[in-house]
Design a protein that fits this description.
alpha+beta, two-stranded antiparallel ribbon, globular
Length: 70
């Protein structure tokens, strides 16, 4: 369900990229479309079936792109 949810977000244009951190830390990263508010990002995380089922957690962090563009 978690992967299907993310695929759906990608098809809608909400999700730019997703995947686990390779450093061994728990968690992963989702880059949402430009202009996404913190409340929208919270809703994306909260609605993830993995989060709702208690299998994973999420944390929203602000990120400043300094090189490249989304």
């Amino acid at each position: 369900e978690h992967v299907a949810y993310l695929r759906g977000l990608a098809e809608q244009g909400t999700l730019h990229a997703s995947g686990p951190f390779l450093s061994g830390d728990k968690g992963g990263m989702i880059l949402t479309r430009r202009g996404t508010t913190e409340a929208e990002a919270e809703a994306v995380g909260r609605n993830d079936p993995g989060v709702r089922g208690g299998l994973i957690t999420f944390e929203v962090k602000q990120w400043m792109v300094t090189i490249g563009a989304l």
